[in-house]
Amino acid sequence: MKAVGVIVEYNPFHNGHFYHVEQTRNASSADVVIAVMSGQFLQRGEPALVDKWHRAKMALLGGVDLVIELPYVFSTGNATIFAEGATKLLNAIGCESFAFGSEQGTIEPFLNTLSLLRSEEEEYNALIKQFISTGISYPQSLYLAYEKLKNEHPNTYIDLSQPNNILGYHYIEAVNRFNLSIQPLTIQRVQAGYHDDINTNLTIASATGIRKSIFETKSIHEVESYVPKATFKELESWKHKHTQFTNWDSFWSLLRYAILRNTPEQLSLFADVSEGIEHALIKAARKSDSFAEFMSNIKSKRYTWTRLQRMITHIFTGITKEALHQFDEPTYIRLLGMTGKGQKYLSEHKKSFTLPLISRVASTKDPMLALDIRASEMYAQGVNLISKQKLEMDYQTPPIRL
């Protein structure tokens, strides 16, 4: 059986994701679609709308055959770290190819961009330093240096101001750097942009727009036409059990406690906390009554919103620099769910996987997996502010079988 991979968060799974899965299967001629999916905390440094099991079930009901978890070490990392973990896991589970959505829609400009930045690396780095020295932020300096290089070396390149193009570039760069055998494909993103609000004239909305509508209206009925029926049922199930969906606002009291219980010296030990920001975090936590107010009090030109949220995630989960940075490679494949076809693929191919397959965590001793379990327990603590969720879910929840 031939497998193709997708790298996802499904927060939540929507019509655009359904389209992407269908197009991925067609473009690759694969028998099986395997999704490597972030767990309870996501790449932009925030808790997932619903837990990983609800999102895995949405995926399986939406056309995915196997769902494996992207470990916390990678799922909460920057684009480079996120891409490395995800592509290596898809390679380890035997995918011949993987397909990512992009604003670009064709693979050649990605390869051209990779070639440009590699061949002109010295000039690129010099330009970055030059822009930073003028007071421009690091992400903006990267973009301006890239734009200058593009003008000096005409060709067809990707637009690195677009979020899916950025992630796509990092996927291809990771495959190239680690000499992975998996081949990249890209699917044109249609209708809704990454950050777009819901447009009632369209059938596809961004996950960002869907979440914004849910939190603003406190209802899921406004988003019903933008998600498959199975996703809507899972959202209904979560809302019935937990009364509301999760974000940093719903976790705020626990997050505030996690910050204030530490001294500045202790905060500085957590992953991504640097440059003395621990003092600002404590000051802001003392005087902020909500997460939005807290973020407005610490936001500055030096730090992107995403970088701030990532350090906050690590403080909340209690994961230090030492704990996070001891890992370079995935050490296991964690199975979250499968269809009958996915189960058949596992039976036929698991002996050729280059990492051990984990379906039950109770009998597994792995330091990287221990961080995933801790993150799940802290996510459950946040959910418990609004309703009950067992802390032992990772131990008690078997892989979903459809």
**How many structural units, i.e. domains?**
3
The helix tally amounts to 19
**In whole angstroms, how far apart are the ends?**
19 Å
Number of strands: 8
CATH hierarchy, class of the largest domain: Alpha Beta
Given the C-alpha coordinates, what overall shape results?
Answer: globular
Largest sheet composition: 8 strands, mixed
Mean pLDDT: 94
H/E order of the elements? EHEHEHHEHHHHEHHHHHHHHEHEHHE
Poorly predicted runs are none
- Gross CATH architecture of the largest domain: 3-Layer(aba) Sandwich
How much of the sequence lies in strands comes to 5-15%
CATH superfamily of the largest domain: HUPs
CATH third-level topology of the largest domain? Rossmann fold
Rg is 21 Å
Helix/strand-derived category reads: alpha/beta
Keywords: ATP-binding, Cytoplasm, Ligase, Nucleotide-binding, RNA-binding, Transferase, tRNA processing, tRNA-binding
Main location: cytoplasm
Subcellular location: Cytoplasm
GO molecular function, one term: transferase activity
How would you summarize what this structure contains?
It is an enzyme of class 6 (ligase). The protein has 402 residues and is of the alpha/beta class.
Account of the protein in words:
It is a single chain. The protein is an alpha/beta fold. The chain has three domains: 3-103 and 168-193 and 329-401, HUPs (Rossmann fold, 3-Layer(aba) Sandwich), CATH 3.40.50.620; 118-159, no CATH class; 252-324, no CATH class. It contains 19 helices and eight strands. The chain has helices spanning 15-28, 52-61, 72-75, 79-92, 108-119, 121-132, 138-152, 163-177, 207-217, 229-242, 252-260, 264-267, 277-287, 291-298, 305-317, 321-324, 340-349, 367-383, 393-396; strands at 3-8, 32-38, 66-70, 97-102, 183-188, 333-338, 357-358, 400-401. Strands 1, 2, 3, 4, 5, 6, 7 and 8 form an eight-stranded mixed β-sheet that branches. The radius of gyration is 21 Å and the shape is globular. The two termini are 19 Å apart.
